[in-house]
Design a protein that fits this description.
The structure holds two protein chains of two kinds. By secondary structure, chain A is of the alpha/beta class. Chain A is about 30% helix and about 30% strand. Chain A has a nine-stranded mixed sheet, sandwiched between helices. A two-stranded antiparallel ribbon of chain A has the order 2-3. Classes of the chains: A alpha/beta, B alpha/beta. Strand 13 of chain A pairs parallel with strand 18 of chain B.
Chain lengths: ~260, ~325
């Protein structure tokens, strides 16, 4: 069984985000890392291929400046190879363009039995790319998967809902998006890290994949204003001296909640 | 071409339109076009309420028969569009179904989507939406360019719910066409995680617990306090991911948006992704042992203390009343 995983490489979420003053888009020119949201997909793919007893996990990613650090992390976890789409023309791409690019990159790898993505990226969180990719590829899809099982040609997914989950079945090939925490992503071993250095990463441009127009030109949107939201004022902060719960009681009484 | 034909992606639940549907209809009514509700499911039963909130016309796919809505409803929408009724603007709720249908439709129409919005403005032909970024500290306004239909999704509770439309709208059937293998995803069983008391996103009081509780069994304190205050219990993602509580209790960017009268955060640091889900609460109380915790920056009452000491005493004091 061959599985392709979409992995986004993003600025370290621990660092404060910044907008590029000239374009008002999120800055992504520093060092990028593997989006944690996608580490679950990589782990799930590795487990599925392992269970199937054969096949491999491939990666697709679109990122600026030929960035590969996040891909290397996923390769070190055990993925076999990757296609990276990196092209200055792609700056400012919307989620639809991203989906077209990733779909073309996935096709370059050959038909996979399953394509896995995260439900939403940590920095963009549009949450639309996986379903758009499925539509571009003409594949069925199941979003918000909290568990995934493959039984012959059938995919069995527990899909998160507002108040529980649905059991969903789907034919393969298909696209699934997985929620955070579905599996425990493995830490790359030293051996894995060393091996990842020589695994193939095929770097291509949007034009190589035949996707146009891309970037701002294809985004059909322009950022027209950036403003500060009215800040919420901090109130009273008190140290617990053993009686602080009475403060809460008084606060609730005052609001007539109790 | 002004924005004259506005669609709202609509859903029903237990024979009534969902709150998200009514929020979008209320807003759509103010944008100056005719408003149509496109119901994913049976529209006839909820048409009169949809009308009350502003839908002059109701498209109904009928029962989805176990199909996941993404492929099915977008295909039904496309049929209507191909038959000549093309919207200028479609409003979606930022929820599971809204997101999937919008994504499929965006590819079918080759139009961009703008997600995570909290506001919209229409000025002649121009449509702009506002999105909070960096935990809601910065608001970015984006204007659609090119031609419609413009597709936009809105976070829950972005708009108030107010009646003010007219009589029941005309109901027009918009059945799901044959989908082939692309529509092979089917729901075969539904599991509801029962919860008692008010719903998390509707409760007047929400008590949420985070990693600071230390272990899963301590969530009992959160449950107890919520019950005493006739509220609902919520959680940070950290403890949902850890498997202490189900995902349906998660508050935040990837969970529920709550705007209760009182929000109590116990052992929650106040990450930006948590705050976007509760910042709109009228009153916020935080209990955290770290006085530098970001949650104190937005709390009306902050208690620097140990949840294992403050919570039991608080529960006892409330029980004694
Ligand atoms: C894409 C993305 C989406 C996300 N979506 C969400 C979301 O929807 N909702 C969400 O909540 N998070 C979300 N997160 C995660 C978020 O970034 C934080 O990791 C999470 O909110 C932290 O949860 P926490 O506050 O419980 O844990 P921590 O950040 O670990 O905080 C625990 C707090 O408890 C305090 N504490 C410890 N012991 C005690 C004690 N005995 N008494 C009192 N206080 C104590 C500590 O001082 C600390 O402040 C998302 C992250 C990403 C990347
Ligand atoms: N630039 C990208 N490169 C690789 N995968 C991506 C990219 N953008 C989005 N994805 C995938 O789509 C998922 C959802 O992303 P988003 O729609 O941006 O929230 C992510 O978790 C990734 O799996």
């Amino acid at each position: 069984m061959n599985v392709t995983v979409c992995v986004k490489q993003i600025p370290d979420p621990a660092l404060p985000g910044e907008l590029d003053p000239s374009t008002n888009a999120l800055k992504r020119d520093g060092k990028l890392i593997l989006d944690e949201s996608d580490s679950y997909g990589v782990e799930m793919a590795l487990q599925l291929v392992d269970k199937a007893g054969g096949g491999e996990v491939s990666l697709v990613s679109m990122a600026p400046n030929g960035e590969v650090s996040g891909l290397r992390t996923a390769l070190a976890m055990g993925a076999a190879k990757a296609v990276l789409v990196s092209d200055p023309e792609l700056a400012g791409s919307d989620s639809l363009t991203t989906a077209k690019v990733l779909a073309a990159a996935a096709q370059k790898l050959g038909q996979a039995d399953l394509i896995i993505a995260g439900t939403e990226s940590s920095d963009g969180y549009t949450g639309t790319v996986p379903e758009q990719m499925a539509a571009v590829l003409g594949l069925p899809s199941v979003t918000f998967a909290k568990s995934v099982e493959v039984d012959g040609d059938t995919l069995k997914v527990n899909r998160q809902t507002e108040d529980g989950y649905d059991e969903v079945t789907c034919s393969l090939p298909a696209v699934v998006s997985v929620t955070a925490g579905v599996v425990e992503p493995r830490y790359p071993s030293f051996k894995g890290i060393m091996a990842a250095k020589s695994k193939p990463v095929d770097t291509v441009t949007a034009a190589d994949l035949g996707v146009t127009p891309v970037g701002w030109a294809g985004a059909n949107q322009s950022i027209t204003q950036v403003a500060q939201a009215p800040a919420r004022q901090a109130g009273e902060v008190v140290e617990d001296d053993g009686e602080a719960h009475l403060k809460i009681v008084a606060f609730l009484e005052n609001l007539k909640v109790i | 071409m002004a924005i004259s034909n506005i669609w709202v992606f609509a859903q029903g639940n237990n024979g009534a339109p969902t709150t998200a549907t009514l929020e979008l209809l209320t807003k759509a009514r103010t944008l100056g076009g005719s408003v149509t509700a496109f119901v994913a499911g049976d529209g006839a039963g909820i048409a009169s309420t949809l009308g009350e909130y502003g839908a002059a016309k109701v498209y109904s796919t009928g029962d989805l028969g176990g199909n996941l809505p993404g492929v099915a409803v977008s295909a039904a929408m496309q049929e209507v569009i191909n038959a000549g009724d093309a919207p200028d603007l479609v409003l979606f709720p930022q929820n599971y179904e809204g997101r999937d249908v919008m994504s499929r439709l965006s590819v079918a129409l080759d139009r961009t989507v703008l997600t995570n919005n909290i506001d919209i403005a229409v000025d002649g032909e121009s449509v702009s939406v506002t999105t909070p970024v960096f935990g809601g500290n910065t608001l970015v306004t984006t204007t659609f360019t090119g031609s419609g239909p413009f597709l936009a999704a809105f976070r829950p509770k972005s708009f108030p719910v107010e009646a003010g439309g007219a009589a029941a709208g005309e109901v027009v059937s918009a059945p799901v066409p044959d989908l082939g293998t692309v529509g092979s995803a089917k729901i075969v069983a539904v599991h509801v995680e029962e919860s008692t008391g008010p719903k998390l996103d509707e409760a007047a009081v929400v008590v949420s617990g985070g990693r600071g509780l230390g272990e899963a069994s301590k969530f009992e304190m959160v449950d107890q306090l919520a019950k005493l205050l006739k509220g609902a219990a919520g959680a940070s993602r950290a403890i949902v991911d850890a498997g202490w509580v189900p995902y349906s209790m998660q508050v935040g960017q990837t969970g529920k948006v709550v705007k209760p009268n009182v929000y109590i955060a116990a052992g929650i640091s106040g990450a930006t992704q948590h705050m976007v889900g509760m910042k709109g609460s009228k009153h916020i109380i935080a209990i955290n042992k770290d006085q530098e915790a970001p949650i104190f920056g937005i709390a009306d009452l902050g208690i620097v203390g140990d949840v294992h000491k403050v919570m039991p005493k608080l529960i006892e004091a409330l029980q004694a009343r």
